[in-house]
Amino acid sequence: MRIRSRRSFLKAGAAVLGGVGSFHWLRTRRHDDGVPWPLRRVLETNEQLARDYFSASHLAPTFPESMVSLARENGGEGLSRDFDIRSWTLKVVSSVHSRRLEMTLDDIKRLPRVEMVTELHCIEGWSQVVHWTGARLSNLVAEAGSDARYVGMETPDGGYYVGLDMASAVHPQTLLCYEMNGRELTPEHGAPLRLATPVKYGIKNIKRIGTVLFTNTRPPDFWAERGYDWYAGL
Amino acid sequence: MKKLQSRHALAIRCFHWINFAVLAVMIWSGLLIYWANDVYRIGIGPFTLFKFFPESFYSTFNIGFRLAEGMSWHFTFMWLFAINGFLYISYTVFSRDWRYGGIQQFAYLTIIFMGAGSLFTGLAVYKPTQLAWLTSLLGGYQFARFEHFWLTVGYALFFCVHIVQVTRAGWNNFRSMITGYELVEAEKASGD
Fold first, then answer.
1. Of A53, A127, A223, the CB nearest to B141
2. At what angle do helices B102-126 and B67-94 cross, to 10 degrees?
3. Where does B2-191 sit in CATH, by number?
4. How many domains does chain A have?
5. Is A43's CB within 8 Å of B72's CB?
6. What number is the ipTM of this complex?
7. Is residue B165 scored above 70 in pLDDT?
């Protein structure tokens, strides 16, 4: 027993060292956008699996109006004070065939109006039921970007920016939103136009969109550069 | 006269200790995530008996402002937790290693269900739109998160009970989870 024990305990000791060593190795790898690169690779693998499973027919549940609560204001990046809402237009750019167009809020309001009451999930862990009103982003894709693989969006001051894969962008519940809980958007919630989509965490629901870019390369993403998953899909 | 008797197969010992390490990483990274919205407590109305967690807990274990890091570890080690857990359970069920007494068997069945519960409530929180059917089945997003949290508290309690039991069972028993063998009286060993 003693010999057997000694042998086993030596092996167990080696296994513990191996485990602690691997943990330390993982923790100290070169960072790729804020996380050790092996973890970044796993996040990308998770993304591939999620994108394979993703379907436009997987809809987020909708809720009765009575569950809507006062919407929390969270995150002011990209909402600089020197913004003149009256001179705002939405710039739509495609790097695939260098097409440009500019839209006013009235142009967007002329697109079919969609209302939905869905749950907004903050990556911090809280969630809220919100009544969104707007136009499907797929309208814009059909007009200017159907041949692109990604959609990038940024605020007029460039202070906040997100990237979306095309499948999420054309999901029927991905809206360019101009009303929230039955009222015009407030500046804190992203007036005059913001993104609302229950297929992504709140961090992708960019406020005060200035530019929409259709592209074949993965657009930069504010929070993905700070250690979060680029895909951030729900 | 005492004799060596095989108790735990090598596979079981590996699954057990891998599970211990992986679960430790899952709970640690889970805490990094939970911190960002730490809403649970034991209490009624305005009275709070215990808040999960006090500031001293966060500062002692350096939990705060590490949400992104927590998510990247959690969504990496979830694979190891699921794969190792699946193999552990399958091996236990299909091997001779399923031979404990009543209460112990009940405890281990409970922990298996808890493991499965963590997996499913975790998936419900991870993909509440793509897996909306699962999230709804578990009572919605916030309730699934609540369940996911309390299952983890359950593991912590199980761990304490487990440690007490292992201590009471003695060194020979603990050693068997490492070496695979225990010492038993010779006449008893031959009867097995």
1. A127
2. 140
3. 1.20.950.20
4. 2
5. yes
6. 0.93
7. yes
